[in-house]
Protein 1
Amino acid sequence: MKLFRSLFLLSLVLISGCSTLNQPTRNVATVETEMEYVTVCDASNQCKKLSRLIMGTDHLVQADWTGNGQPELTEPQAQAVLDEAAKLGINVFDTSPIYVGGVENKLGKWLQSRKQSAAQDGFYYGKQSNPDRKLYALSKGGFYFDLFYSKKLESGSHSDGLKKALVALEIMNATAKPSPDGSIALTNVPPGTYASRLFGPKEQITKRVSEELGHSLSNLNNEITIYLMHRDDSDFVRFKENPRAKTEVSTIMAALSADELQKHFWALGWSNWEPARVNESIALSAKNSKLPHPVFNSAYFSLFEMSNRTIHAGGVQVTHEEMNDSQFEKGILQNSYSPLGGFSIFDKPEPRWENAMKAAKLKHDQGDAYWQNVYPSLFTPANNARYDRVVAFTQKFNKEHGTHYTIDQTINAYALAHKRTDFLTIGPITIEQLRRTVQSLKMARLLTDVDLEYLHSGN
């Protein structure tokens, strides 16, 4: 579940300078509605002021997400939440073609319908909200081919290691002939079995990403501001990575530099890429102007850290120590996410770690593919201790400051207060959750490095 990570500040401050796509740095402006913006400029000095709070839509219209029997939001209900986000000054909306309920298409229709409204001062709660008076879409590609759902291995080349694993498990016949479209039929494919879209020569990568990008362009009316490769090059069987050498970063970047891709988005980035690969991409683009410069990086970051089991196949997290190091992955903007979420722990009448763990264990035991990963990844003794600390810390903080922050707001503030947090993706599905979420940056400004260390480690 998306952890509600909100990003708002108080009062208007002058924006000075900008961060370029060649050397991005955080440069922040705050407005009277508590929203905060980062100015990002391209090589031609064309700049956008992007809200640090990015509205995620992954579970916006998903039924049974907050509890059994929770209905799917109707399109008008979903639009009301999106309207509230925009009125509060959020101008970046995160989506993808594989998100639940065809939400990318629904978001595209909403963005198109709100163009004129977003240009009007009266649309916003604060006069200085959304200085650009535009709404921006962040979408994603580079997803694995999900063999469990497709029941076929796509045409083109795939790693020998993956094919051998599929044959050994009798998922693929070693002598099977390709169908007319070049794909190979698979049988009895277990969940969590994926083939990389970023494997192979650059021409194949360009073609595969181009096909994927086409769906998003159709959904979003050909208007994508930020485009992330949401996975790196890897194959998985039953959620376990099939070991092999990854495609060279330079090959992937060369593939993404193709005009048929680059002309369709303003900024490129990574999601769930290991730091060494991220740093390599920054260095490569600095040396070779023909390669696209990666501007955004999105990785898992939360008070609740993943165990050795990641929350999903190919998940990559950054740590407390890394995110509080001003030199970490210098040269790229950090947009963090977390799927734990406020629902199971914080939005019930009696929020308790034990309640959340019990609900997660039930779904895990029932074979739910999502919770097969999330339960062992996040419900650990170390995270239980962190939960107990954040409860006690929130009570003490409110008493000392005369405030009324909730536990989820403290967890949001924890993420926001780190030096390398440029953007955060949030996932509220109600207006109340959204309003509560956007207040936590004010708390984040009051947190010290000592507070962050205590919440993380207890020291």
Protein 2
Amino acid sequence: MDFDLPWTEKYRPKTLEDVIGQAEIVERMKAYVKTRNIPHMLFAGPAGVGKTTAALALARDLFKEDYAQSFLELNASDERGIDIVRGRIKDFARTLPLMDVPFKIILLDEADALTPDAQHAMRRTMEMFSGATRFILSCNYSSKLIEPIQSRCSVFRFKPLTDHDMKEMVKRIAKAEKLDLHDEAIEALIYISEGDMRKIINALQGAAATGKKITKETIYKVSSRAKPEEIRQMLELALKGKFIEAREKLDKVMVDYGMSGEDVLLQIYREITSLDIPDRAKVNLVDRVGEYNFRMVEGANERIQLEALLAQIMLIGCEKEEQSRP
């Protein structure tokens, strides 16, 4: 098995034709490649849906094999201040392109991490060097960019990948790596991914390191996630008033899967909608989860907070039982 490259890089699409799950965006980009001209672009959307990949594929389709000479990729979360704009970005933007495409491309990943001063300097750089350089700004939250930058860019909203798209990618990798991948394992990969393709590929590579045969148990182990049914059982025990058993179940999932308190809380939140309780009780549970999540973020002891949440769930269950009595 070839582990020379992380699979997130090894199986990254090389051209726009290979990009999955963003059909409308890919069609717009292909039109730009055909005319050999692009505007400044703003890629916005959740993590792991193909923003950086689409930018790299666009550059390869435009500049072919020598794309590295006319393409600069930077990550704004590494250098967030005004110096990065006045230094590397400005130096690259002011030089003339050496290829037959009349402009170069600067990809600024995580652009929403730039400081306000750096963003204003970026706006001025985009104005001055737009003849020779095009900017692609990639971010999770476009609202964090100043309005003058947003108005200069053609905005591309990347959607979360569908289950079908993720399954197709997983099957493609499994075939290339000759893995025996169960259908339940694919469903487990989609569950732990939360729409992020990188999480899926990293979990699949981690599972493949243990052997060719991959089951859902392997996926949950390597990704430090509990099986959904185990979290649901814990919640149902608490709702039935079996606090000690629910607490033991909590201990088991945290030890077996090496989960943090916030990991457990996130899975509890995801399982609330599947519980057989009235909507009002679900609303109360979501409210409680939000409260305890805030406490943990503020530094409270996660074990105490999780057990307190189980106690609150038990009280909600007892309240429901009392209301159902004649």
Protein 3
Amino acid sequence: MRILPLASLALLVPFALSAQETPTERESARDVVRQLDSLESSLKLPALVARLTGPNAARDQVVARAKQLMDTDLLALGDDITRHPEIGFEEKRSVQLLTDYLKRHDFTVQMGTPGLPTAFVARYTKSHGGPSLGVIVEYDALRGTKGAFHGDQHSTQGPIGLAAAIAVAEFLSKTGTPGTVTVFGTPGEEMMPPNAKTVMYESKVFDGMDILVRSHSSSATTRPAAGFGTCCMNIDGVKYIFSGAPAHQLTAWNGRNALTAAIHLFNNIDAMRSNMRPETRIQGVITEGGTAPNVVPDRAVADFYVRYPDEVYLAQVSKIVDDAARAAALATGTKVKIEHYGADRDGIGVGALNELAFAYMKKYGAVGVIPEPGKPQGYEETGSVSSAIPGVGFQARTSNASNHTYEMEADALTDVGHKGFVVDAQAMSALLFDFATHPEYRATVKREFDTIRALHGEYLDALRKTYVVPNVPTPEQ
């Protein structure tokens, strides 16, 4: 669920996106932005990153082990999953391959978490105490008109995470360094409902983790700025279910056309776009619209993702779309049921993690590097987890194409994909090594995360004062 061009905007604007995505956010919440900038300056991240990425023989051995695992086993495993795509919540074969590999490397595997049979939790058995290191892996394919396909390269996100987890876990065990490693298999990243990571978080699956890491495909090597945000905007997932009455199409006046209502919904939304802030994105498809051309459709379903960069104005947009659906039903003599079935909200981006991850990706040969940070975003595309537990996503260039394309799937099987996957695994293992072995680094991450988190309420309050709903008077006679 990655949209790279948003991350590339830093190349197109004359200022660094130091905090927050839109001009409205930066101006309305300028006091919060000022505090975020002051925090980042106080951390002295360039010096911290230079020190951690300097010579370290033990780290280099861990990184070499991750690369060895990728070269000998895990790139091939990723290729296998790429060639056998499974959509979200149906990834049984992929999960079996990943968990079998973990078991062979001294991880105990718990299959399934509450409500999610293709989720798993794998814990390394030979290390104890110390910081709790968590690795998130994904494996679901996209739903395409030609069938499932790995146009977001989730097929190798699992092997990348396994390489880093195993390399670091073996180091902890061999050296007696305190620490634990847990791998979380998170299904259905591209689907709502449910948002699997949110469901797992609410079931307390991630409790006790000090850090969570993941990777994601990308057509450039990037990292986000610190602050509040998500990769693909705040999202409301909504279904509009229209009910009409069937009739013969030659005597259609005897029925009420639910498909016409759904089409009216799309037209009503288009009519309102000029009254919405320009960053708004509303995307929908008609998933049901009748079964025969000679029968008036008495049921139609439209599925929408309603998006905006922050949750405050998103609430206004969602109301507009809901009202557009009610108007469509009223205009066509049908009825509508509105089902808000899922939501993605802002997470927290941590500069101390993002900058170190970026430095390691460059150190290990990532290409297509975008030097300036992109907009702030949480690391796992569902703010529920990244707003509660500090973490980072690795995004080395793994494709020449954009996300959600057949070309990106094809690149997963070629040198551009393989090189980026190995870079991600190396960088991930290096950062986990640093987090496990440097208490002062952990303290910096915690300080930054806790400070940003504490500012979120103030940030939302500032936006509420800006997004004023116009007062529309009752017409005079």
